[in-house]
Amino acid sequence: MNILIVRHGQAGERAAFFARTGRPDRERPLTLEGRRKFRRGLPGLKRVAPKLRTIATSPYTRAAQTATLLAERFHKAERVVLPALSHGGKPSDVLTWLRRRSATASVALVGHEPDLGKLIGVLTTGKPDAPFSLKKGGAALIEFDGKAAAGAGVVVWVLTPAVMKKLG
Description:
Elements: E1 2-7, H1 14-21, H2 32-48, E2 54-57, H3 61-73, E3 78-81, H4 91-99, E4 106-111, H5 115-125, E5 139-143, E6 154-159, H6 161-167
Parallel strand pairs: 1-4, 2-3, 2-4
Antiparallel strand pairs: 1-5, 5-6
Helix pairs in contact: 2-3, 2-6, 4-5
């Protein structure tokens, strides 16, 4: 199993968004710059990422928008909303969802920090306190020999948006 973990692109500041709109943080969108930067890195990401069968996203607007941009490059991937990827979601809930996928699946997970870093820790070391963190719009590929299991994943690569752009 291959798991592509993607942090959502740049979104505006939380407090400024609330002051301007009065809407909750889960509705905060990507900025135009955030969309542009993520799009610039997608050709490079597609060069090194496996073909995706599924793109699962947090229901938060900025993550869903990032997943939409990702889906534009990975045309045949099914898109699903996975509440466990919401800000504050539990890595164990994501792992439960992953275990229901095929051992040969290639899945993208689009979400938020620090949750994605904790998830990478659980997938690779079995512990959520492992020192992983993705930049906004960054990605990591975790590989398993068979189905996903806590502590059984191997980090193949971690890419910043700048490296993704250079690869494209």
